[in-house]
Design a protein that fits this description.
Strand order of the largest sheet: 11-5-4-3-1-2-16-17-13-14-15
Bound molecules: adenosine-5'-diphosphate
Distance between the termini: 92 Å
Helix content: 40-55%
Radius of gyration: 41 Å
Number of strands: 24
Shape: elongated
Strand content: 15-25%
Structural class: alpha/beta
Amino acid sequence: MTGQRSSKHHRNTTGGRITIGVLTDWIEQRYQAGIYMGIADVAEKKPFNLMTFPIGSLREPYDFISQRNIIAGLVKHAHLDALIVLSGALSNYITYQELVSFIEQYRPIPMVSVGVPIQGIPNILTDNKKGMKDALAHLIEFHDCRRIAFIRGPEGHQEADERFQAYQQALSEHGLSIDPELVMHGDFYWTSGTRAVNELMDTRGKKPSHDFDALIASNDFMALSALKNLQDRNVQVPEDVAVIGFDNIEETSLIIPPLTTVGQPLYEIGEKSARMLLALLDGKELPEETVLPAELIIRQSCGCLSRAVLNICLNIPENPAPHPEKIMNAWFSKLPEYAGIGPEEPPVLQLLENFTNAINEDCDHRFIKNLNNILQRHGQANQRLSEWHDILSHIRAHAIAQNADFPDVSMRIDRLILQAHILVGDWERQVQCNLANYIESHSVTLSQVNAALISTLDLQAMMDVIALELPRLNIRRCYLVLYENPEGGELPEWSRCMLAYDERRRFHIEKTGIRFTTCQILPERMLPEKRRFALAVFPLFFQELHLGYILFEIEKTVPRHYEMLRHQISSALKGALLLQQHLKTEKELARSNEELEQFAYIASHDLQEPLRTISSYAQLLNRRLSDRLDEDTELFLNYLTEGARRMHTMIHDLLIYSRVSSHIKAFQPTDLNRLLQHVITDLSAVIGETRTQIQIETMPTVLCDSVLFERLFINLITNAIKYNKKRTPKIRISAVLKDREWTISIRDNGIGIHSEHHNKIFGVFERLHSRSQYEGTGIGLAICKKIVERHGGRIWVESTEGKGSTFHFSITTTDEKSSAETGTPE
Ligand code: ADP
C-alpha cells in the first residue's frame, strides 16, 4: 500500500466537477490513444473534466520536438485535482532519476504513474517480462528458432531494460546462450530499427537464417523498420527470419506480413488509472503497484498462419476447448478498447440459440440476420471484424462435436458457417472501404483547412478561418493563445487569448486579444463551468520559436488530426506574425525616414544662414586686410572660405536629397528628348571645357516629375564627365523597352568602377575617391536612387574598372502611346 491519501489536497472544482490531468508525450499514437480512451470513458461516466498535456518526450533530441516540453510548465497551474502521468512515454531520453525529479514538481497533486514505477505514488505497470518471455518461448518452442537477435530500447529506460532482461532470461531458461553479437542498441525510434539491421548485417556480417533466424525488437517502431530493411535486402520474413515487436501499435496489423507482437491492455490501463485516482481522491489507500498482463498477439511475421485460417480446421475438441460462449464473451469484453463501443448486453446467448435453431430448421435465417445486425453495428464503429472468423470456427467445432451422429445436421452446420464467414468477409471489406472513404474525405477537409490557413496572412482573418473550419473536423471547442514576447525556453509571464469558441458561441475578442497571465492557461471564466470538457493543450511553435498554445476539445476515440492542425496553425501563425512584424518595421522605417528628411531639411536650411555669415566675413576680412596679411594668415583665411564653400555644396545636395520625397508635383507625360536638350544646355559650359561628346538616341515619353528627372540626368551626366581621364570623354544615352518597362542607359568611357562597389555607391556619402582626386559630396547617386525609386523603378550600374561605366535605370510605362510614338524597337 502506498498509504497515499488525498483528502488533504484541495479540490479545485469547476462547476462542482473535478478535473483530472493527463501528462503524455503524444496523444494520437495507438499506445497513448488506447490509454486515453479508457480514461475518457471513465471521465464520461463519472463524470469529470479532462485536461491533457501532450508535451512530447522529455528532452527529445529530434526535430525541435523538445520545444513541446515548454507546456509542462502549465500543468502546475491548471487547477488539477489529480494527474495521470504516462511516465514510460515521457522518459525515452532521460534517466530514471531525472524522471523522478520531473514528476516531483507536481506534488502534492495526487498522481498515478503509468509504465515506470515511481516511489510513493500508485503505479500501473504491464508485465513486460512475461509478455517478452512468451514471445521468445513462442519462437523457440513453436518455430524452433535458436539464434534470436534483439534490438534493445534506450538503456536506463525502465521498460526497455525489463524487456531486455526478459530476453536474456528466456534464452537461458531454454538452454540457449546469449550472443552479444546479436544484440543491438536502439532508442525506440523508427530509424534505430533500420540502423540495427545495418549494424547486424553490414558491420557484424551476420547472415540471415544462417547466423540469426529471428529478430525481436523491444518496441514495434523498431521492429517495423527492421522488417522493412530486411525486406529491402530481399530477406524473406518469416521464411528466413521471424520478426516480433512489442506494443501492438496500429500499423502492426496493416503491413505485409502482419507483425506478431506483444500487446498491452491499453484501454484497461487507462480505465484503471482513472478509477484509481478517483479512489485516491476519496481518501482510499491503494497498492503501490498494479501489474496488468501483456498478451502475445500472434500474426504472420513469426511464421504462423493467421489464427482465423488455422481455426477453420478446428476439429471436435478432444481436450475440452473453451466453449464458444466463453470466447464470444471474452471478445465482447474487449470491444470498448478496440472500438470505443459502450457497454452493451452481449447478444451472445441469443446468437447461439439462433444457431442451434438454424441447424435444425433449414429455412431459419434468424442466425444470419442477427449476425448481420451485429456485424453492421460493429462495422459502423470501425471495429475489427476478423475475430468473428475465430468465433465462428469455435461454434462450428462445438456444434459438429455435439452432432457427430447426424451427417445431415453436420452438412447444415458447414453450410451455415460458410455463409457466416462470407458475411464477415463482406462486412470486413465494407469497413475497409468506409474507412478509406472517411480518411479521404477527412484529408480533403484537412487540406482545405490548410489551404485556407496558409493563404491568410492576416492574424485576425486567420482566427476567422480557424473558427469557421475547425468545427468541420468535429472540433467543438477551441481556444488559441499567443505568448507575449516569447524569449528563451521559459513560459512568458503574459499571453493573449486570440480566439475562443465552443459549441454554443464564438467569444467576442478584440483584435489585440485578451491579455492574461500565462499561468492561468486561459483568461478567467472562459472554460465552461456547467458543461463537462475534455481539452488537450497543444504547443504552437515553429522550429525554435515558441508561439503559444491551442486547446482542442478531444474526442474519445482520438482521431489523427490534432497534431497536423497544430503544425499547420503554427506555420500559418509564423507567416502571419512575420508579415505583421515586417509591416510594423516598414511603418516604423517610413516614419523615421520621414523624420530624418524633415530634420535634414530643417538642419540644412537653418545651417545655410550661419554658413553664409562665415563665408562673407572671411571674404570681407580677406579683402580689407589683403595688404597687411602674412602668408600663413592668408592661407588660413582661404581654408576658411573653401571649407565654407564645400559645406555649402554639401548642404545644397542634402537639401535636394531630402526634398525628393516631399516633392509632390504630379507625374506628367514628359518627352525625354526635350528634357535632355534642356539638361545639355544647362551643362554646356562643362561639356565644352571637357570636350565631351554626347550621343543621345531616340528617347521615349514617360510619366514622371520633370524637375526630378532633370536632376537625375544632370547627376549622371556630370559624373560621366567627372570620372573620366580621357582626352575626349564620350557619353551615349539610350532607351530600350521590354515588358512595358523602359530601361534608360547612360554609358561613358571613364575610369570605371570595381564590381565590389557597384551597390555601395548609391548610399549617402559613399565615395570611392578622396577630394584631392575628384571633387564631390557622395550624395549625387543617392539622390538618383531616390528619384528613380520614387518613380517605381530601380537603378544599377554595369562597369569594369578602367573600361567605362553604364548606369541604367528603369521606369514603367503605363501609357501605350508613349512607346508607340517613339518608334523605338522593343
Ligand atoms: P560624388 O560624385 O559626389 O562623389 P556620387 O554619389 O555621385 O558622389 O558618386 C559616388 C561615387 O561613385 C563617386 O565618388 C565615384 O567614385 C563613383 N562614380 C559615380 N559615377 C561614376 C562614373 N560615371 N564613373 C566612375 N565612377 C563613378
